[in-house]
Design brief:
By secondary structure, this protein is of the alpha+beta class. The protein contains one helix and 13 strands, in the order H-E-E-E-E-E-E-E-E-E-E-E-E-E.
């Protein structure tokens, strides 16, 4: 009789532990996936404003090019879109090119990021991406990347490592 009671208590404890483990895993406790890294690429200037984006040799996207003329005509990916009204704050003093890729999600880690222009030039960036937003802001006329409030020279054809 005593052996049967002892086995019943053992079964109850095992089932209780099993139930707790299942409940904790369903509640999201325990191992949690790390938050993803997000990459946003912004280009100021004509060079690389319509570049292809590669990460570790794999093509992952293309920047959307916006071109605004001094008379307010706006083109997106070389297609006329709208004419801004005279005096609009976004009409530039000189023709203005920008490019953007808005938020690509990836696992945090160290990557080789390459912007490949249509003319064959490339901008190679070695970056350690952290969870959350990682913004690569490249000014092609200055050949400069702004990364986490740091200004870094980045010439096409030469690798640039971001801190």
């Amino acid at each position: 009789m005593q052996v049967c009671i002892h086995m019943s208590y053992s079964r109850v404890i095992i089932f209780a532990l099993l139930f707790i483990a299942i409940a904790l895993s369903l509640a999201g406790w325990g191992c949690k996936k790390p938050d993803p890294a997000r990459i946003m690429v912004q280009i100021e200037g004509e060079a690389f404003s319509d570049a292809l984006l590669f990460i570790d040799g794999k093509r992952v996207g293309k920047l959307v090019r916006t071109f605004i003329t001094t008379d307010g005509k706006m083109f997106i990916d070389d297609i006329y879109t709208i004419t801004l009204p005279p005096g609009h704050k976004d009409i530039p003093a000189e023709d203005k090119y920008t490019g953007a890729l808005d938020s690509l999600q990836i696992k945090p880690g160290t990557y080789q990021i390459v912007l490949q222009a249509v003319d064959g030039r490339s901008l190679q960036i070695n970056a350690s991406l952290k969870p959350g937003m990682n913004i690569i802001d490249y000014h092609s006329d200055e050949q400069t990347i702004y990364w986490n409030n740091i200004k870094i020279k980045a010439a096409p054809g030469a690798p640039t490592t971001l801190p």
